[in-house]
Amino acid sequence: MGAARTLAAKLLQAMLRYAPEEKRAWVEAMLRELDFIEGEWPALFWALGCTTAIFRECLRGWGEWLRRQIANLLGIRPIQEENKMNSTGKKTLGVLSGIGMALALGVVAFLLRNVIADALLAVGIPRTMWSHIFSVIVPTEVIVVVAAILLWRRNRAPVAVGLLVPALLMGAHVVVFLVSR
Question: Tens digit of pLDDT for each residue in 45-88?
Fold first, then answer.
């Protein structure tokens, strides 16, 4: 057995050790199938593909577990059957109203940027990119995220999601801007 095939076997054996119980039979089958792959490198690439598939399947379960843990931490009750009967229109309206509120706050912050910059100049802080980010963008992001968390805790998830969409887009815009400089 060559180095590539040995690495492939060790990779699948590691997945067998760390995979959840319900996925282990699948990993064992993949480990047995490794013997039938011809060639060292094809065996390694096949094992990498298997590992990716197993990892992706495990992430789905871990994601659901993490979502439940965060919901418990934030005090969000599980959705009851009667809550599942909410119409799509109401949820859509909630998301759109959240987006509208976040955009309105962003527009107000944008319009106040010169007032804020002048106030900072009055106390001796020069007008720079960083003063703009920390005096306009960061407080706006914090306000939107705090409002989204409060709304989420009050079972207003669609509005909270609507608030977070523009906030995430604005945050991504700032990150891309800073990385491109």
Answer: 888 888 888 878 777 777 777 777 777 777 666 555 444 545 66
57-65: long-range contacts, CB 8 A cutoff, minimum separation 24: 57/23, 57/26, 58/19, 58/20, 58/23, 61/20
Alpha-carbon span 86 to 84, nearest angstrom: 5
The model's pTM is 0.44
* DSSP conformation letters of 21-62: GGGHHHHHHHHHHGGG--SHHHHHHHHHHHHHHHHHHHHHHH
Can you tell me the distance from the alpha carbon of 90 to that of 80, in angstroms, rounded to the nearest whole number? Answer: 17
Question: For residues 85 and 152, is the Cβ–Cβ distance under 8 A?
Answer: no
